[in-house]
Design the sequence.
C-alpha cells in the first residue's frame, strides 16, 4: 500500500488539489471550503517534499498517465529542477491556507468565499501540473487551468478596478497562452510528438527549418508574457494591486515563477542549449530584456504611492534578475537564476502577506495609510522589515544568497555591464523599501485609525507571514542544501559538473 | 411572449428531440464525432432555448441553480474519481483496463465523458443564468451562483 502510494505520488500531487476544488464547491460553506483547502494544500506540500527526496535519489521520477507508454501517452517527469519549483508552489500554497481565512473573510462576501478556495485549489492544481508534466501540450492545458482560475481570483478583489485589471490580465494572458499553443503546434508539426524528451531527440534533425525557429520564438514570447518580462509586464502591477491580499501573496510568489520554469524547461530541455543560445541569439535577447526589467521595474517601483503596486513593480524588476541568471546558460548562471526564483518567491510571498495584514487593519494600501503602523502592529511591521532587507539582499537573508550567486555568475561570464545594472537596481530597491519603512516607523499614527480595530493581525496571518520570514532567514544562514539542489538541477539542464 | 405562437410551438416541438440528441452524442462519443463536451453543450442549448422562449424563471424552476452547482462539481468528481478508482484498483491514474475485465477502455471512456458532459452542461446553463439574471435585484439566487460559471471550463478542453 505504501509503495503503491509512493508510485502514484507524481499524479496524486496534481489530483488531490484538482479534486478538492469541486469538493469545496459541494461543501458550499466558507469554513468547510477553507478546511478542504488547507488539508489538500498541506497534503500536496508533503507529497512535493517526498518527490523532491525521490528525485534527489533517483535523479528523475517518471509516471505514465493511464499506463500508456511515454512517447505516446502523457508522461509526468519530476527531476530536481521541477521538484524545487514544486516545493516552492506547494509550500506557498500551504502557508497561504492559515493566512487566507481571515484575510479573505475581510475582503470577500461570505457567500462567495467557498468559490475563492475552490479557485485557489484549481490554480494550485494547474501550477503543480505545469511543473510535473513531461508533455508539451499537457503543460499548455495546465497553464490554462491556472490562468483561468487566477483571472477569476483577481476579479474577486474588493475594488471595482479589480475587474478591469483581471480583464487586462485575461487579454495578455490569453495572448501568451495562444502563442505558447502556436509554438507547440509548430514543433509538433515538424516532429509528430508532444513528449518533451522525445521532442528533444527529434528536434535536432529539423533545427534548420524556419518552422522550428518560429516555434521557439512563439514559445519564448508566450511564456515571457506569462512571466511578465519587461515589454510584456503591463498586466502585472494592476493584477497584484487589486487582487485580494491573500491571492496577491499566492500568485506573486508562484504564478510568474512557474512561467519562468516552463520557459526554461522548453528552452533547455526541449530545444537544447546549443540551439537556443548558440545557433540562435536567445541569450543576448533575454539578457537585454532582463537588464531593462531590472532597472525600469525598480525605477517605477520608487514612484509608487500604493504599497501593493510598489511590490508588484519590484516583482517586474526581480523577474529580470531571475531571467538574467538563466539567460547566461552556464551552470553557475542557471543555478543562480533558479535560486533567486525560489528565494524571490519566498520574499515576495512574505512581503505581500505582511502588507495584506496591514491592509486587513487599515482597509487601504497606500503608503500614507500605513503611517505609524510600526507602533500599532510591531510584529507585522518587523516581518515587513526583514522581508524588505531580504528583497534588498542584506547578508543573512535569502535575498543575499541568490544575489551573491547571480553576481558571481555574471562576473564569471564577464557580463560586467549587467552586473553593474544589477547593483544599481539593488540600490534602487533600498529606496523603495526604505520609503515603506519610513512610513511605518517614522510617521505618527493618524488619530482616526486607532478607532478601528486595535492591535496586531489575527494569529493565522501572523503565523503564515512569519513562517515565510523564518524560511528566508534559515536560507540566508544555511543555504548549502538549496544551492546544492539548484546546482544539481542546473547540471541536468545545461550540463557541467554539479 | 404570449403572442409568439410560432416560436412557442416550434420550440416545444424541438426541445425534447434536442435533449435526446444530446444523449445520442454523449453515448456515441467513442465511436463517432462527439462526446461529453459536445453533448453537454447541446443539452445546455435545449435548456437555454427553453429559458429564452418561456422566461428565465421557468428555466430556473426546471433546472435550479443549486443543481447546476452540484452538477458542475460532480462532473469533475466523476472524471477524477474514475482516475482515483483505477489507482485504488492497483493501476495508474485513468488506467481504464483496471475497471472491468473486458472493455475497460471502452466503459472507462463512457464514464469520464459522462462527467465531462454533466460539467459542461451545468456550466453553460449557469453562464446563461448569470447573463440573463443581470440587473434583476428581485432574484435572490442570481447573486449566489454568480461565480460558479467561471470555475470549471478549463478542465474539459482535453
Sequence:
Amino acid at each position: 500500500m505504501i509503495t503503491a502510494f509512493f508510485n502514484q505520488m507524481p499524479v496524486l500531487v496534481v489530483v488531490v488539489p484538482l479534486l478538492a476544488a469541486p469538493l469545496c464547491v459541494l461543501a458550499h460553506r466558507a469554513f468547510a471550503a477553507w478546511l478542504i483547502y488547507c488539508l489538500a494544500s498541506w497534503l500536496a506540500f508533503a507529497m512535493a517534499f517526498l518527490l523532491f527526496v525521490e528525485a534527489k535519489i533517483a535523479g528523475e521520477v517518471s509516471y505514465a498517465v493511464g499506463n500508456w507508454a511515454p512517447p505516446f501517452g502523457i508522461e509526468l517527469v519530476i527531476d530536481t529542477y521541477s521538484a524545487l519549483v514544486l516545493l516552492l508552489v506547494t509550500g506557498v500554497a500551504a502557508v497561504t491556507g492559515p493566512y487566507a481565512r481571515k484575510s479573505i473573510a475581510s475582503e470577500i462576501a461570505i457567500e462567495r468565499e467557498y468559490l475563492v478556495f475552490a479557485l485557489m485549489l484549481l490554480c494550485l492544481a494547474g501550477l503543480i501540473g505545469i511543473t510535473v508534466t513531461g508533455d508539451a501540450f499537457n503543460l499548455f492545458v495546465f497553464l490554462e487551468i491556472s490562468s483561468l482560475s487566477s483571472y477569476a481570483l483577481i476579479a474577486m478583489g474588493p475594488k471595482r478596478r479589480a475587474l478591469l485589471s483581471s480583464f487586462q490580465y485575461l487579454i495578455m494572458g490569453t495572448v501568451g497562452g495562444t502563442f505558447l499553443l502556436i509554438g507547440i503546434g509548430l514543433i509538433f508539426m515538424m516532429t509528430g510528438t508532444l513528449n518533451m524528451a522525445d521532442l528533444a531527440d527529434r528536434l535536432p534533425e529539423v533545427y534548420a527549418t524556419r518552422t522550428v525557429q518560429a516555434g521557439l520564438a512563439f514559445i519564448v514570447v508566450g511564456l515571457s508574457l506569462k512571466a511578465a518580462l519587461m515589454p510584456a509586464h503591463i498586466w502585472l502591477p494592476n493584477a497584484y494591486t487589486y487582487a485580494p491580499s491573500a491571492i496577491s501573496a499566492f500568485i506573486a510568489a508562484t504564478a510568474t515563477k512557474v512561467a519562468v520554469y516552463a520557459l526554461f524547461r522548453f528552452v533547455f530541455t526541449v530545444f537544447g542549449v546549443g540551439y537556443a543560445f548558440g545557433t540562435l541569439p536567445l541569450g543576448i535577447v533575454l539578457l537585454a530584456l532582463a537588464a531593462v526589467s531590472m532597472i525600469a521595474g525598480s525605477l517605477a517601483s520608487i514612484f509608487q504611492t500604493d504599497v501593493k503596486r510598489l511590490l508588484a513593480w519590484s516583482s517586474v524588476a526581480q523577474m529580470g534578475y531571475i531571467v538574467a541568471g538563466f539567460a547566461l546558460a552556464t551552470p553557475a548562471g542557471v543555478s543562480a537564476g533558479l535560486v533567486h526564483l525560489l528565494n524571490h518567491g519566498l520574499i515576495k510571498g512574505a512581503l505581500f502577506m505582511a502588507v495584506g495584514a496591514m491592509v486587513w487593519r487599515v482597509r487601504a494600501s497606500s503608503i500614507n495609510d500605513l503611517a505609524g503602523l510600526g507602533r500599532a502592529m510591531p510584529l507585522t511591521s518587523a516581518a515587513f522589515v526583514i522581508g524588505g532587507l531580504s528583497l534588498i539582499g542584506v547578508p543573512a537573508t535569502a535575498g543575499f544568497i541568490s544575489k551573491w550567486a547571480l553576481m558571481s555568475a555574471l562576473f564569471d561570464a564577464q557580463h560586467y555591464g549587467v552586473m553593474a545594472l544589477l547593483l544599481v537596481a539593488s540600490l534602487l530597491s533600498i529606496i523603495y523599501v526604505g520609503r515603506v519603512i519610513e512610513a511605518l516607523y517614522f510617521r505618527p499614527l493618524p488619530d482616526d485609525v486607532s478607532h478601528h480595530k486595535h492591535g496586531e493581525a489575527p494569529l493565522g496571518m501572523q503565523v503564515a507571514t512569519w513562517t515565510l520570514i523564518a524560511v528566508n532567514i534559515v536560507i540566508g544562514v544555511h543555504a548549502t542544501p538549496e544551492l546544492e539542489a539548484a546546482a544539481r538541477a542546473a547540471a541536468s539542464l545545461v550540463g557541467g559538473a554539479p | 411572449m404570449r403572442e409568439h405562437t410560432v416560436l412557442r410551438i416550434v420550440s416545444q416541438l424541438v426541445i425534447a428531440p434536442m435533449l435526446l440528441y444530446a444523449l445520442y452524442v454523449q453515448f456515441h462519443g467513442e465511436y463517432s464525432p462527439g462526446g461529453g463536451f459536445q453533448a453537454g453543450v447541446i443539452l445546455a442549448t435545449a435548456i437555454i432555448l427553453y429559458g429564452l422562449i418561456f422566461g428565465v424563471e421557468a428555466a430556473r424552476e426546471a433546472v435550479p441553480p443549486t443543481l447546476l452547482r452540484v452538477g458542475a462539481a460532480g462532473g469533475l468528481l466523476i472524471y477524477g474519481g474514475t482516475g482515483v478508482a483505477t489507482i485504488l484498483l492497483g493501476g495508474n491514474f485513468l488506467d481504464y483496463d483496471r475497471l472491468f475485465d473486458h472493455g475497460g477502455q471502452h466503459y472507462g471512456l463512457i464514464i469520464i465523458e459522462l462527467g465531462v458532459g454533466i460539467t459542461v452542461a451545468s456550466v453553460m446553463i449557469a453562464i446563461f443564468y448569470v447573463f440573463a439574471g443581470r440587473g434583476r435585484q428581485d432574484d435572490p439566487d442570481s447573486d449566489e451562483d454568480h461565480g460558479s460559471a467561471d470555475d470549471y471550463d478549463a478542465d474539459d478542453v482535453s
Notes: Chain B is about 70% helix and 0% strand.
